[in-house]
C-alpha cells in the first residue's frame, strides 16, 4: 500500500505547504480564545441546564454508591437515563469547586475547547495548517456546538472522546502499532459509556479505513480488528454489566427502562425508541411515550425540529444548528478527493470524515422516535473538517487555473444562496432587526466577491484576499447564531442555537419550550412547608416524575422519590409498594399532577393513574393556600403561568399520613385540590 495515514506528508500545494509558523500559532490561539469566549460568556446567567441531570450530579455527591450507579436522587431510588462518564466528570468538578451550575458546566466548556484544538491537529496533519485553522474556526463558530458546550448534556464529552478515538486510529495506521488501534477501540468504548449506542456510529468507517490503510498484511488486519472488537465490547459493556449483575435491591432502578436493566436501556430507550415510537406502559395503564417537544413546530414555537426523512437535516430549523457550510463541505470534499489522486493517506482521511458525517446523517435522518435538535451536534466535527479541507482544495484548484478554477467562486456563491435560504425561513417571524436589506445585501456582497475572484484569477495576492473575504462572509450568519446562543437570557432548557434580535413572540416560544425541561428552583413556600414537617427517616417528598423532583434535590440534596421516573412511565413502584413505604414511615407528602394538561400527557399522567388513584383514596389533599406561593415570576412584563415551576401549576399535594386537624391543613370535602 503506497503511503500511510498519520505520517507528515510532503507538501503538494501552496497552502498545504504553510508551516506551523508563529503566525499560525497565533491564529490558533485566536481561534481557541474565540471558542472560549463564546462558550464562557455569562455562563452563570445564560446556559442550557437540564435540571434532571443537575439533580443527578447533586445526588452523586452524597455517596460513592450514588456516584458509581449514576443515581438521580440522593436516596439512590432511580438512575439517570444515560451512562455515567460525562456525569462523573461533572460531579468531580462540583466536588472540587463546589456544587453549582458553573462548576457543573466547566467540563463541557473544557471539552468544547479541546475538541476545537484537537480537530485542528487532526486536519493539519494531512492537509496543512490553513485547512486545520479553517476546520477549527468552523467548529468554533458552529452554533449548536456553542449551545451544547454551554449545557450540562453529554454531547460535548461524546464529541471529544470520539475525536480522541480518531486520533488514536490515525496514529495506529501510521505507526503500525496494534496497541494504538486498541486505544482507539477503548475510546469508542468510553464514548458508549457517555451516550450508549450513538457512539458506535463511527465504528463502520473506522474499521473500513483501518482495513484499507493499515501497514500489516491484509489477513492480519482482520485479526487485529477482531481483537479491537473484543476491547470495544469489554469496555462498552463493563459498567452496564456491573449494574445489571448487582442485585436490584442494592442499586437504583434503571431509569427509563421497563425491566430495570441498563442493557435494556441501551437497546430500548437509547436505541430502538430513537427510531420507532413504541407503547411503554411501564406495567401500568398508558399510551406511547412522547419526548418533551417531540411534535413538529415552527420557529416561533421554540421547537427546532424537522420530521424524519431524507431531507430532515437540510430543513432550516436543523440546518441553522450545524449546516451553514453544507455546500462548501460537499463541493470542497469532492474537490479534495480529486486533488488527492495518488495520495492514499489524504484520500483515506477524507473518507473517514465523510463517512463520519454520512453515517450519522443517515441515522439521525431516520430517527423518527425520540429526537432533539442537539443530537446532530455529533456531526459537526466531520462537517467542519470537510469544510476546512475543501476550502483549501478549492483554492488550490483556483490557483491552478483551467476550468476547475471556477469551482471556488461557484462554491462560495452556492453556500451564500444556501445561507440566505436558511435565514429567509426566520426573518419574517422571528427577527426584530430591520431585515429588508439583510439577504439582498449579503448576496450582493458575496456576488461582488465572486466577481473579484473571477477577475483576479492570475493575481495571486488579490485572489487570496478575495478568497479570504469570501470565506469570512460565509461565517457571518453562523457567528450571529453563535452570538445569539451565547447571549441567551435563561438558564434552563435543552441546548439549541438561537439567532439574536428575536421578536417577543419568538423569544416567548423558546422560553415556553425551555420550560419543558423543568425548573432549577422549587416553590420556596412549598419547600419551607415540607422541611418544617419532615421527620427523621422520611424522604422530603415523593413526586410523579423527575421533573417535579429535580428542583428540590438541587436546592437541598435531600432524598426525593420520583415514583414514575423521567417520563412518568417507569414501573418503579406499585400501589402496594407505595403503601409499604407509607406504613414504614418513609413517605408522607406526595406531589401529583405535573403542570398543565399538555405537560401531564407528556409526563405519563395516564400511566400513573393506579398510583394517583391510590394516593387520592388513602391520602388527604393539602389546601394549596398553605403551601403554594401566590406571587409568580414575571416574564415579558406579564405574570405568566408558564413561568412558574411545575409544582406551582395546578398540582396537588397529598398527605399520606394526616396527623393535623382537617380544618387547619386540608382541603374541605366540597373543595377541589389545586
State the shape: globular
Tally of helical segments: 27
Low-confidence stretches: 1-19, 280-300, 634-642
Topology, number of strands: 7
Structural class: mainly alpha
**What is the typical, i.e. mean, pLDDT?**
87
Strand content: under 5%
How many separate domains? Answer: 3
Query: How does the major sheet shape up?
Result: 5 strands, mixed
Calculate Rg over CA atoms.
27 Å
Distance between the termini: 74 Å
Topology:
Blueprint: H1 22-40, H2 51-60, H3 64-68, H4 85-97, H5 101-127, H6 129-140, H7 143-149, H8 155-175, H9 178-195, H10 203-213, H11 218-245, H12 262-267, H13 316-322, H14 326-339, H15 344-366, H16 380-400, H17 407-430, H18 438-455, H19 460-473, H20 476-486, H21 504-515, H22 524-533, E1 541-543, H23 546-556, E2 560-562, H24 575-583, E3 589-592, H25 597-602, H26 609-618, E4 620-621, E5 634-635, E6 638-639, E7 652-655, H27 662-665
Overview of this protein structure:
The chain is mainly alpha-helical. It has 3 domains: 22-254 and 305-391, no CATH class; 398-515, no CATH class; 524-665, no CATH class. The protein has helices spanning 22-40, 51-60, 64-68, 85-97, 101-127, 129-140, 143-149, 155-175, 178-195, 203-213, 218-245, 262-267, 316-322, 326-339, 344-366, 380-400, 407-430, 438-455, 460-473, 476-486, 504-515, 524-533, 546-556, 575-583, 597-602, 609-618, 662-665, and strands at 541-543, 560-562, 589-592, 620-621, 634-635, 638-639, 652-655. A 5-stranded mixed β-sheet has the order 2-1-3-7-4, sandwiched between helices. Strands 5-6 form a two-stranded antiparallel sheet. Helix 14 (326-339) crosses helix 16 (380-400) and helix 17 (407-430) packs antiparallel against helix 18. It is globular.
Amino acid at each position: 500500500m503506497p503511503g500511510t495515514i498519520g505520517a507528515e506528508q510532503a507538501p503538494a500545494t501552496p497552502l498545504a505547504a504553510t508551516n506551523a509558523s508563529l503566525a499560525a500559532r497565533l491564529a490558533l490561539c485566536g481561534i481557541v480564545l474565540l471558542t472560549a469566549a463564546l462558550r464562557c460568556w455569562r455562563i452563570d446567567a445564560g446556559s442550557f441546564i437540564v435540571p434532571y441531570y443537575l439533580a443527578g450530579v447533586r445526588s452523586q455527591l452524597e455517596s460513592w454508591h450514588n456516584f458509581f450507579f449514576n443515581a438521580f436522587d440522593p436516596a439512590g431510588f432511580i438512575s439517570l437515563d444515560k451512562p455515567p462518564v460525562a456525569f462523573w466528570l461533572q460531579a468531580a468538578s462540583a466536588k472540587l469547586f463546589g456544587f453549582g451550575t458553573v462548576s457543573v458546566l466547566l467540563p463541557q466548556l473544557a471539552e468544547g475547547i479541546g475538541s476545537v484544538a484537537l480537530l485542528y491537529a487532526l486536519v493539519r496533519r494531512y492537509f496543512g495548517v490553513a485547512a486545520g485553522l479553517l476546520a477549527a474556526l468552523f467548529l468554533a463558530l458552529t452554533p449548536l456546538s456553542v449551545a451544547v458546550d454551554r449545557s450540562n448534556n453529554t454531547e460535548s464529552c461524546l464529541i471529544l472522546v470520539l475525536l480522541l478515538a480518531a486520533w488514536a486510529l490515525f496514529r495506529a495506521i501510521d505507526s503500525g502499532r496494534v496497541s494504538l488501534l486498541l486505544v482507539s477501540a477503548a475510546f469508542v468504548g468510553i464514548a458508549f459509556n457517555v451516550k450508549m449506542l450513538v457512539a458506535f456510529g463511527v465504528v463502520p468507517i473506522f474499521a473500513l479505513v483501518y482495513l484499507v490503510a493499515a501497514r500489516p498484511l491484509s489477513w492480519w488486519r482482520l485479526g487485529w480488528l477482531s481483537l479491537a472488537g473484543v476491547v470495544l465490547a469489554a469496555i462498552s459493556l463493563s459498567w452496564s454489566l456491573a449494574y445489571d449483575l448487582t442485585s436490584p435491591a442494592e442499586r437504583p432502578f434503571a431509569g427509563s427502562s421497563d425491566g430495570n436493566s441498563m442493557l435494556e436501556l441501551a437497546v430500548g430507550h437509547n436505541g430502538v425508541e430513537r427510531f420507532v415510537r413504541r407503547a411503554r406502559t411501564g406495567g401500568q395503564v398508558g399510551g406511547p411515550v412522547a419526548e418533551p417537544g417531540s411534535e413538529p413546530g415552527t420557529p416561533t414555537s421554540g421547537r427546532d425540529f424537522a420530521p424524519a426523512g431524507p431531507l430532515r437535516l437540510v430543513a432550516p430549523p436543523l440546518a441553522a444548528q450545524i449546516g451553514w457550510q453544507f455546500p462548501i463541505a460537499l463541493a470542497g470534499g469532492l474537490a479534495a478527493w480529486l486533488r488527492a489522486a495518488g495520495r492514499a493517506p489524504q484520500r483515506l482521511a477524507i473518507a473517514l470524515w465523510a463517512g463520519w458525517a454520512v453515517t450519522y446523517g443517515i441515522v439521525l435522518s431516520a430517527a423518527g422516535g425520540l429526537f432533539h435538535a442537539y443530537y446532530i451536534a455529533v456531526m459537526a466535527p466531520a462537517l467542519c473538517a470537510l469544510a476546512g479541507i475543501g476550502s483549501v482544495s478549492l483554492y488550490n484548484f483556483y490557483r491552478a487555473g483551467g476550468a476547475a478554477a471556477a469551482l471556488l467562486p461557484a462554491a462560495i456563491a452556492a453556500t451564500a444562496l444556501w445561507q440566505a435560504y436558511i435565514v429567509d425561513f426566520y426573518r419574517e417571524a422571528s427577527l426584530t432587526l430591520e431585515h429588508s436589506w439583510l439577504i439582498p445585501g449579503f448576496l450582493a456582497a458575496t456576488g461582488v466577491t465572486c466577481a473579484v475572484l473571477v477577475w483576479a484569477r492570475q493575481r495571486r495576492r488579490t485572489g487570496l484576499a478575495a478568497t479570504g473575504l469570501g470565506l469570512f462572509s460565509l461565517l457571518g450568519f453562523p457567528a450571529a447564531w453563535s452570538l445569539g446562543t451565547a447571549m441567551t437570557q435563561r438558564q434552563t432548557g435543552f441546548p439549541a442555537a438561537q439567532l439574536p434580535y428575536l421578536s417577543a413572540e419568538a423569544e416567548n416560544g423558546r422560553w415556553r419550550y425551555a420550560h419543558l425541561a423543568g425548573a432549577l428552583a422549587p416553590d420556596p413556600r412549598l419547600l419551607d412547608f415540607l422541611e418544617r414537617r419532615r421527620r427523621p427517616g422520611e424522604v422530603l417528598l415523593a413526586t410523579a416524575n423527575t421533573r417535579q423532583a429535580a428542583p428540590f434535590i438541587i436546592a437541598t440534596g435531600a432524598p426525593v422519590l420520583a415514583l414514575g421516573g423521567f417520563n412518568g412511565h417507569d414501573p418503579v413502584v406499585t400501589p402496594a409498594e407505595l403503601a409499604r413505604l407509607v406504613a414504614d414511615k418513609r413517605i408522607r407528602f406526595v406531589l401529583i399532577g405535573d403542570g398543565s394538561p399538555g405537560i401531564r400527557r407528556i409526563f405519563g399522567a395516564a400511566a400513573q393513574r393506579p398510583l394517583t388513584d391510590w394516593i387520592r383514596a388513602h391520602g388527604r389533599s393539602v389546601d394549596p393556600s398553605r403551601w403554594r406561593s401566590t406571587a409568580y415570576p414575571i416574564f415579558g412584563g406579564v405574570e405568566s403561568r408558564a413561568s412558574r415551576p411545575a409544582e406551582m401549576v395546578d398540582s396537588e399535594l397529598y398527605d399520606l399520613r394526616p396527623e393535623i386537624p382537617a380544618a387547619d391543613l386540608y382541603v374541605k370535602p366540597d373543595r377541589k385540590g389545586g
